[in-house]
């Protein structure tokens, strides 16, 4: 696996190292761009101030609309797919700094954070060229505090590692709007429905039914984040829900909000 030096693209609008041990990179990515699997020597907080991206790690697939950011530990393989034009702001954290700040253990795994208005403004303020050393250090500490206040797994779809279960998961993800039957999937991947059900439970900590619902809701979030014209009724129909209330209830169960609230139309 390639270890990518920072920055990983040539077109960098802002790129400097703060005295707080954080390397800041600002760049715009067009829809459809894919950053193939790679890793960094630094830990990073990946945030799209505008647009939507998808971050895939060995453990799963994270959908990242504008009100989310992803923490990626150092040395973790990940790929990024740009689903809608994004304005990315990435913070790369030196490992010695994380060690000095006693942040290493709590940030050893990847996770998604819900970006509050405070965290949003703090990240953007870090890229102000007029910042003093004192202001930069305070902003970095504020960002780190907010990370632990806002962890959120609603947009995470865990990916099983066992080959048969992984193939079944990819079949569902390639067509999340389909009504996938576990018996049919099991035959396609060469196992029994009972075994596949057990594998989903042990590999993802979700039942097959719950995992499929998470995949459908992730697909709904993607549409809501990239298509301003889509209606909740259209989504409910496309995703196979019997009614808008049934879809809204499933959406709320996963995200804590209704589709309308998530899209900011309520």
Q: Mind telling me the CATH class of the largest domain?
A: Mainly Beta
**Cα-atom Rg, whole angstroms?**
19 Å
The dominant shape is globular
Mean residue pLDDT: 84
- Number of DSSP strand runs: 9
Oligomer: single chain
> Which strand-content bin applies to the residues?
15-25%
Number of domains: 2
CATH arch. level architecture of the largest domain: Sandwich
Helix content: 40-55%
Structural class: alpha+beta
User: Which fold name corresponds to the CATH topology of the largest domain?
Assistant: Jelly Rolls
Major beta-sheet overview = 9 strands, antiparallel
Q: Low-confidence runs (pLDDT<50, min 5 residues)?
A: 3-17
The arrangement of helices and strands along the chain is: EEEEEEEHEHHEHHHHHHH
InterPro entries: AraC-bd (IPR003313), Homeodomain-like_sf (IPR009057), HTH_AraC (IPR018060), HTH_AraC-typ_CS (IPR018062), RmlC-like_jellyroll (IPR014710), RmlC_Cupin_sf (IPR011051)
Pfam families: AraC_binding, HTH_18
Protein name: Transcriptional regulatory protein
Domain HTH araC/xylS-type: 166-265
Describe this structure in words.
- This is Transcriptional regulatory protein.
- Keywords: DNA-binding, Repressor, Transcription, Transcription regulation.
- One of its GO terms (molecular function) is sequence-specific DNA binding.
- With 266 residues, the chain is of the alpha+beta class.
- The chain folds into two domains: 136 residues, Jelly Rolls (Sandwich), CATH 2.60.120.810; 104 residues, Homeodomain-like (Arc Repressor Mutant, subunit A).
- The chain contains ten helices and nine strands.
- Strands 1, 2, 3, 4, 5, 6, 7, 8 and 9 form a nine-stranded antiparallel sheet that branches.
- A hairpin with a 4-residue loop joins strand 1 and strand 2.
- The longest helix has 19 residues.
- The N terminus is likely disordered.
């Amino acid at each position: 696996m390639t270890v990518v030096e920072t920055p990983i693209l040539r077109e960098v609008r802002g790129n400097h190292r703060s005295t707080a041990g954080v390397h800041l990179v600002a760049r715009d990515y067009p829809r459809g761009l894919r950053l193939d699997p790679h890793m960094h020597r630094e830990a990073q907080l990946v945030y799209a101030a505008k647009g939507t991206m998808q971050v895939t790690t060995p453990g799963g697939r994270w959908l990242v609309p504008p009100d989310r950011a992803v923490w990626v530990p150092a040395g973790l393989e990940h790929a990024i797919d740009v689903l809608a034009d994004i304005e990315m702001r990435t913070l790369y954290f030196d490992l010695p700094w994380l060690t000095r700040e006693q942040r290493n253990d709590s940030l050893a795994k990847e996770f998604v954070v819900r970006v509050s208005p405070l965290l949003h403004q703090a990240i953007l303020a870090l890229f102000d060229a007029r910042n003093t050393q004192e202001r930069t250090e305070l902003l970095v500490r504020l960002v780190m505090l907010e990370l632990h206040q806002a962890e959120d797994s609603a947009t995470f779809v865990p990916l099983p590692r066992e080959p048969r279960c992984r193939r079944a998961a990819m079949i569902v993800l390639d067509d999340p709007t389909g009504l996938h039957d576990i018996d049919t999937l099991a035959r396609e991947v060469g196992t029994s429905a009972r075994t596949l059900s057990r594998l989903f439970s042990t590999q993802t900590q979700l039942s097959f039914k719950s995992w499929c619902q998470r995949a459908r809701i992730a697909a709904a979030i993607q549409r809501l984040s990239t298509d301003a014209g889509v209606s909740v009724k259209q989504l409910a129909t496309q995703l196979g829900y019997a009614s808008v209330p049934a879809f809204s209830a499933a959406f709320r169960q996963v995200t804590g909000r209704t589709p309308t609230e998530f899209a900011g139309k309520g």
